[in-house]
């Protein structure tokens, strides 16, 4: 079932690129931008996360944290983060639990890959309520960053 604005954000605990468990509950009291992305080291995913990296101070000024989530292993995400100098956690949804909970999963993807996270963006407010939800069917599209920022401005 699709996540709608006003819903309580589904809880998750995932392993980060630093091999530590990270829960959505760890971000209680802060606005959180959750970005699901299909696969590390791919063009659009790299561009998306680099834009977030480069604009992180703007998000911080709105009391917002950023979390990137994909089905890649923590080991892959560690290298991806290192190479691209990402300044926010990348979380491994290797078992696809968060992707299913947020209803952001391609049943079939490219090259015969199945069960890959769709490119998606969610803004969760400091109380754990979804204030913005965007799930893209076309992996070549980018989230609407302007709409994400506008949503965050209403929460600051």
Order of helices and strands: EEEHHEHEHEEEEH
What is the average per-residue confidence, as pLDDT, rounded to a whole number? Answer: 93
- The percentage of residues in β strands lies in 25-35%
Basic shape: globular
- Given helix and strand content, the structural type is alpha+beta
CATH topology grouping: Glutaredoxin
Overall strand count: 9
Q: Helix fraction?
A: 25-40%
Low-confidence stretches: none
Strand order of the largest sheet: 2-1-5-4-3-8-9
Using brief descriptors, characterize the structure shown.
5 helices; Glutaredoxin; alpha+beta; single chain; two-stranded antiparallel ribbon; globular; seven-stranded mixed β-sheet; 156 residues
Question: How is this structure best summarized?
Answer:
By secondary structure, this protein is of the alpha+beta class. Helices cover 28% and strands 27% of the residues.
Give the secondary structure arrangement, pairings included.
Elements: E1 13-16, E2 21-23, E3 31-36, H1 43-54, H2 56-60, E4 64-70, H3 74-84, E5 90-92, H4 97-101, E6 105-108, E7 114-117, E8 120-124, E9 130-135, H5 145-155
Parallel strand pairs: 3-4, 4-5
Antiparallel strand pairs: 1-2, 1-5, 3-8, 6-7, 8-9
Structure characterization notes:
There is one protein chain. The protein has a 7-stranded mixed sheet with strand order 2-1-5-4-3-8-9. A two-stranded antiparallel sheet has the order 6-7. The chain has one domain: Glutaredoxin (3-Layer(aba) Sandwich). The chain is of the alpha+beta class and 156 residues long. The model has no long low-confidence stretch (mean pLDDT 93). Helices cover 28% and strands 27% of the residues. It is built from 5 helices and 9 strands, in the order E-E-E-H-H-E-H-E-H-E-E-E-E-H. A hairpin with a 5-residue loop joins strand 6 (105-108) and strand 7. It is globular, with a radius of gyration of 14 Å.
